[in-house]
Amino acid sequence: MNIILLGPPGAGKGTQARILCEERDMIQLSTGDMLREAKQSGTEMGQRVADVMARGELVTDEIVIGLIREKLEGEKKGGFIFDGFPRTLAQVDALADLLAEEGETLHSVIEMRVDDDALVARITARSTCANCGEVYNDLTKPIPEDGKCAKCGGTEFTRRADDNEESLKQRLMEYYKKTSPLIGYYYAKGQLAPVNGLGEIAEVRAAIARVLDASEGAAGRDA
Ligand code: AMP
Fold first, then answer.
1. Which residues, in sequence order, are CB contacts of 70 under 8 Å at separation 6+?
2. How many angstroms does the Cα of residue 2 sit away from the middle of ligand 1?
3. Looking at the DSSP assignment, which residues form a beta bridge with residue 53?
């Protein structure tokens, strides 16, 4: 199963991708995480994209397609979850080509729907365990009272440099201008599965599981 999690920043793509990795042995491919890693480790590319990311703009298609290409050639396990990729129609075409080269197909595009007010509240309250990447939210999923990450026991938590109102505004503009056209495209291809991203984490998880189970059943019947 290869799927895309599509939705605006703060829709919960990363949180749900991590759950799918645990439950279905899938591999999360988050271009945002890859770019932050490149920035952190000070590679030349990481330095080049740092300002663009801080402003909330998209980095070039060439860079993110290169990152995805490398990962697709590696281990495949229970399938790939594309989280934050593709974000432009050029990336859509590149992904189709890369999957075809690997003899893989795209099973489902899950559109996580959340309204803009909820996004601002979610993003400005978000923090991440510096050790394992578990995502917390001051309002809906606070860091445990003992100050330790529930997953790994880590005690250091970071807030993303671009999780502020100013750059969120720009990230939303980029989303509506460049990424939201993907919704119409995948709808027309019959691959779009909208899910209400506003509920509790467990509710959204269950909604996604229903889509994947149905898609898996259909794939089995076709085989
Ligand atoms: P994310 O963690 O998915 O919210 O991504 C953080 C930032 O990384 C975005 O605001 C962009 O600057 C950059 N980025 C991540 N994925 C992509 C992509 N597929 N195309 C272009 N820029 C991206």
1. none
2. 20
3. none
